Amino acid sequence: MEEVRNVFRRRKITNTxxxxxxxxxxxxxxxxxxxxxxxxxxxxxxxAEWIVSNLVPDARALGHLPKIxxxxxETALLSAAVTVLAxxxxxxxxxxxxxxxxxxxxxxxxVRIAAAFFRNVPDVAWAMLLxxxxxxxxxxxxxxxxxxxxxxxxRAFVETIDEVSSSxxxxxxxxxxxxxxxxxxxxxPSSLPGVLTWVLYMIETNIRSSTLIGILTATGIxxxxxxxxxxxxxxxxxxxxxxxxxxxxxxxxxxxxxxxxIM
Length: 263
Known about the structure:
Blueprint: H1 2-33, H2 37-42, H3 44-54, H4 59-63, H5 65-97, H6 105-120, H7 123-134, H8 138-162, H9 166-174, H10 179-217, H11 220-230, H12 234-262
């Protein structure tokens, strides 16, 4: 009984120290940045009034809707193309990085290091670096999204493949099957639901990311948002944001339906 009390006492002390530490970090950050919670709360009414006055799409903004939908379609198709291409390369590399094929440990290590490098460099940083070589065009945005997507999907696919039951792989190996029958008849059918789930998720993520990258590269829906914002045409800029939100919600709904079918 005394041991149980000690466990709860230690847990209570740990939780208290954690929350106290978080409060101290928040207080220190507020002092350094000059942020005051009370001022932030008091600014809400004025901010809400400004949003209602300036960010509600008007007739002029609706006149830009065809152009916005055209750019939005371009962004969505680009995101889908990047994700599919990155998924193909990521799946091939993940086979080399997984444990299930018994690849040499040095190769597995190299694949995992490469995946960690590509996914830990933000796509915005890739876009800034690539602009020195390719300039402000759609190719820069394509490669910026591709590198980050490739790193994320390689890591995700490695874990997905490693979760595949090894019994089917061992059965194929026992029959003398080569690497291609093992991949296409054993690994791919078992890991396909998880792979498709990650691909659908990355399409949603890349649509959101491509908006910010489009501001840097002057392409897609991000270019329109930047253009309207710099013109102080806030109603049109808000219509761009609203169209992006609706598109992401629609794609998420479709993705959920597809997941229900394949899972």
